[in-house]
Amino acid sequence: MYINRLRTLKYLIGICLLSAVLSACGNRFEEQLIATHKEVQSSLVYLKDQLDSRRLINTLLIDKYARALSQQKPDYADVAALLKQEATSQGKAYTALTRRLVAVNLQPNSNEEAASGLQELQLVHSAADGQEFNNSLADVVNTLASLSDGQLAVINVPASQQASAQQANALVGNPTYGNWRQGSSGQSIWAWYGMYSMFNNVFGRPYYYNSWSSRPHYSYYGNYGRNRWGSNSDVSKNRNLSQRHPSRYNKPSTASKARYATTTRRSSSYGGSASKSTSKASRYSSYGSSSRSSSFSSSRSFRSGK
Fold first, then answer.
1. Residue range(s) defining the domain that contains residue 168
2. How many distinct structural domains can be found in the chain?
3. What is the pTM of this model?
4. Phi and psi dihedrals of 191, rounded to 5?
5. Which pLDDT tens digit goes with each residue over 186-207?
6. How far apart are CA 150 and CA 163, in angstroms?
7. Domain contains 10
8. Domain for residue 282, yes or no?
9. What separation in angstroms does the CA of 71 have from each of 75, 167, 199?
10. Is residue 233 part of a domain?
């Protein structure tokens, strides 16, 4: 009986020690997530100040283009006003980042959840960098330009794609403004969110993924942003679409394949898997001077690819 009691005591002690270790690990994970969350939140507050004080160059261009389009085509005044809002912290581009931050689970139940949360925080932080956010606003500028019948020039578009960019809506494919939905015919069709549905009338046609992706089309988000800081969900959805509708122009690039691989593989060791996702290749460039210093590092090696 004494031996049985001793075994029971050892078992109970083991359970207590294991519970203590798991609790300590859980607390450590939560502490790291909370600390990182605060830093990303701070970067978004700083970005908000940059937007509302008009310190990003492309916010000024959006204002200029919106005014010019309203004067050229008074019927497009509502569209111009909607796109002009993207140059502020009230626009979808900014509020989408704040929603992603809020959605991060700060009380993970596993190492995998903790790693996923930290990775998402790092991606949002990359998107909130002033220089990177300014670059992403080029899609808004170019959408305004596409409505001007050539009166307004597209910006930051490779010479070989400027003609097609002048005719296209650069916001198609960006999950901030809509998503691809499967219609009754089985085809994937672009569905705009809220007020952006007015683009259906402005451009006079729906966008079907197979035809849209089969011709050269440029957007900052599609060519760079998705792989640099897009959500894991959008990376996966885009890859699935490109596999279902293969074409010359929508083949996943090396960068896209590498990014997809990191979204489908999680390390059981917290603190490592998230950082590995942004260190697959060398850094493209350091943060712009408009951004404050941070302990984060952002992978800028992704050159292209949907």
1. 20-276
2. 1
3. 0.78
4. -115, 115
5. 889 999 999 999 999 898 888 9
6. 10
7. no
8. no
9. 9, 20, 19
10. yes
